[in-house]
Amino acid sequence: MQSTEAGLRPPRHLVSRKAIGYWTLRALAGWLIPLAAQVIWMLQDEGRLSWHVAGLVLTMVLAAAHVVIMPQWRFRVHRWEATPEAVYTQSGWFNQERRIAPVSRVQTVDSQRGPLEQLFGLANVTVTTASAAGPLKIHGLDHQTARRLVDELTEGAHGDPGDAT
Amino acid sequence: MTATHGTEEWRRLSTRMLVIHPIQELLRAWPVLIGLVFAGTAGGHGSWWSLAGAAFVVGAGMLRWFTTTYRVTPEQVQVRKGFVRRQVLTVPRDRIRTVDVTANALHRSLGLAKIEVGTGRTDRKDDGVKLDALHAVEAAGLRDELLHRPAAGPPQAAEVSAPPRQTLLARVPTGWVRYGPFTLTGLVTVGVIAGVAGRAANEAHLDPGRLGPLSTLLDRWERAPVTAEIAMLVAALVVAVAVASTIGYVLAFYRFRLSRNSAGTLHITRGLITTRAITIEERRLRGVELSEPLLLRAVRGARCIAITTGLRVGRGAERGGSLLLPPGPRKEAQRVAAEVLGDAAPLTCPLSPHGPRATWRRFSRAVGVAALIVAASLALWALGVLPPWAWQLSLALPPAAALLAFDRAYALGHAVRGATLVSRRGSLVRRRSALSCDGIIGWNLRRSFFQRRAGLATLVATTAAGRQRVEVQDVELGEALRTAEAALPGLLTPFLQR
Asked: B19 in a domain, yes or no?
């Protein structure tokens, strides 16, 4: 009982460092739309130029903060670990969520790669159990690591008979 | 036994469905048909169009009988259906969790019953096998065939010759109707009726004030002071909801019987006009839940719900079929839950409270939101947007929120008893869930920013049954980990800090 008092440590592994670049790029792309909308509005609307400029500056400051801080922060909080018995993930900035699933209860192990993620050599791994409340998602894994993880988990999941409900 | 020789053949629905399908389709399509009448009146062919539409609907309904066939093989159940889009649904027999036999008034008048086969895939809609409908006897036979016989493997002579025994676990006596008004199921009904009536009166340009007896009543009402008006309106609403709830209770739970079949299933039959017979495989049962909505709690009532794989809870326990006991005396609900679990301890054992920090969190959240609303309505009044009675009325919110918070904090509790995780939470609907530890297939440990500051966590046991999760809300982190360790020893051990 003494040991449990000390608490649950975070999962051991960080995701790939390349994910920072990917997240930055994606966040940038996401901010382009409101920025473009604002610029178009400014060009359409002749008067009140100072208001428009102020709004634009504000958006840019917010965008810069998001693009710089978010990927770093996310890189630090998104963690994962897999042992022969269990998969363990952590995600979330303000609302932290840690998920643990025994490998014997794993039903499917998927890996997905979007076009941009392929460019960065990244992959996402989703581990599902029979419960709709418990999929474990690991975003931004290195492609090789993801492949190894999927292989390990599928082997482990096959070892147990029954339908894992 | 008659079914065994014909198992491999494709079978059809009852021929009487040639009558029911068109009626059902017509009932379902009546808004469209009426729409056709109106759309057509402009051209002067309204009735023709609607007649053609009706003929099409009837034809499509009859076609369903011709296109739907099913068969039961030793390994699987297959249904072929569809005309334009041919479908073959296949369900492996060892994946069948529940069988639900329903008969509405139309079915019953012709001696038919609809059968629905539930599998474990709770995440998808409409994947189950539905047969609408068979002869009532045939439906009951199919149910026994699907659940009470070993799907494949060597037939055991002793088991086949001895008919399975039924033991009655619970029945609902007529006196329980007194719990009906406290279920609030009538709220929706009254809302719908009021909506439809108002709409109809509006469409027909009917002024309720001009109807003889109503007008005198309304006249008297209009002369009464405002407070009396509101009081009368509320009283009328309360009576209407209570009456509707009671009628709903009788309709749904008339002759409710829960019995256990020695072949390993729980069997529920109920209903006044539409009868339902639900069979749940006990092997798939992961736990039970005692649910006490606030009003029901006031009269010491409770419901008992099964936590089982293969039954969707999202649609409400009543429609989903996982209800083990309708609203009734709390003691009875506890007894039935204990009978089903085979152990009374998880339902009666004392629970560990979650401590002052969890209580504070409940208060700060409930009262905080109420205070925000008061502040907002005050500000809006100051700005001249809202009339003064808005903020005066909003002053009632914080005390109400405080009461709610107190009740919510009081409800929080958890325990691991034997091999069962017990968790209790909620105020408007207080639920005590007892989930078998075998049914837990993982943990989610959620900690919001404020929970981390308070050293609390919400421990979620994920499961394939029922609502897919059982939450232990706002428990101290150390206690959360101890609970998880006690429920599934060893799973967390490698991740603990030493």
From this structure: yes
Look up the ipTM and state it.
0.85
For chain B, percent of residues with pLDDT exceeding 90:
25
Is B171 part of any domain? Answer: no
CA of A155 to nearest chain B CA: how many angstroms apart? 18
Q: One digit per residue, pLDDT tens: chain A, 165 residues?
A: 333 445 889 999 999 999 999 999 999 999 999 899 988 888 887 777 888 888 889 999 999 999 999 999 999 999 999 988 899 999 988 899 999 999 888 888 888 888 888 889 899 999 988 888 878 999 989 989 999 998 888 887 665 555 666
- Is A163 part of the contact surface with chain B (CB cutoff 8 Å)? yes
Interchain contact, B441 vs A96, CB within 8 Å: no
CB atoms within 10 A of CB B31: 8
**What backbone phi and psi angles, to 5 degrees, belong to A57?**
-60, -45
Residue B282 in this model has a pLDDT that exceeds 80:
yes
Residue A5 lies in a domain: no
Optimal mutation site among B127, B312, B443, interface A, most CBs of chain A within 10 A: B443
> How many Å apart are CA B413 and CA B351, to the nearest integer?
5
Which single residue is written with the structure tokens 């967390």?
B492
The residue among A8, A79, A98 with the most chain B CBs within 10 A of its CB, best to mutate, is A8
Set of chain B residues whose Cβ sits within 8 Å of the Cβ of A3: 496-498
- The count of other CB atoms within 10 Å of the CB of residue B492 is 21
Q: What is the pLDDT of residues A75-84, one digit of tens each?
A: 999 999 998 8
Q: Which residue matches tokens 């700060």?
A: B364
**Chain A residue whose CA is closest to B481:** A4
Instruction: Give the end of a domain, one of B163, B191, B212.
Output: B163
State whether residue A23 is helix, strand or coil: helix
Contact B53, B36 (CB under 8 A): yes
Task: Give the residue from A75, A106, A127 where a domain finishes.
Answer: A75
Q: How far apart, in whole angstroms, are the C-alpha atoms of residue B40 and residue B57? A: 17
The answer to whether residues B305 and B323 touch, using CB atoms and an 8 Å cutoff, is: yes
Domain shared by B185 and B144, yes or no:
no
Average the pLDDT over B351-371 and give the result: 92
Contact A94 B462 (CB under 8 A): no
The answer to whether position A164 is within a domain reads no
> From the list A85, A94, A97, which residue is nearest B444 (CB)?
A97
Angle at B37 between CA B32 and CA B38, to 5 degrees: 95
The 3-state DSSP class for residue A136 equals strand
Which has the closest alpha carbon to B287: B440, B392, B427? B440
